[in-house]
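Data's thin. Show one?
=====
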Amino acid sequence: MDPGTQVADEVCHIFHDMKVHKCSTPEEIKQRKKTVIFCLSADKKCVIVEEGKEISAGDTGVTITGPFKHFVGMLPEKDCCCALYDASFETKKFRRVLFVCLFLWAPELPPLKSKMICTNSKDGIKKKFQANEPEDLNWVCVRWVGT
């Protein structure tokens, strides 16, 4: 994720699908991603979707209760990554707010090289949050930023 790193087309498509809430059938809504984690390819030259690290909107409330807590639990302890989280909530005035958060996850345990790649890429990645520990990620912060 340094300045020379490429971003896989799949990552761009997922981001677009998550940020654009178009009129959809109930089945399409269930398939929409709630969260996705991205990592570097094995050669460290491309940002890709991390296999098996996603939650669909259809899983929320069915197989997964507390999707944000589940999302935080999916983050790797020993590596850096980026993640998209589709956050939605209602305000006190019953207005529905929808937005996508981009997290840059940089815990203390990764090897120095991973941290350097992650740090060097910060400026190139449009982000809303950087988190260093699970305690940095809480739903209250997400709700506050979105209001």
Remarks:
- The radius of gyration is 15 Å.
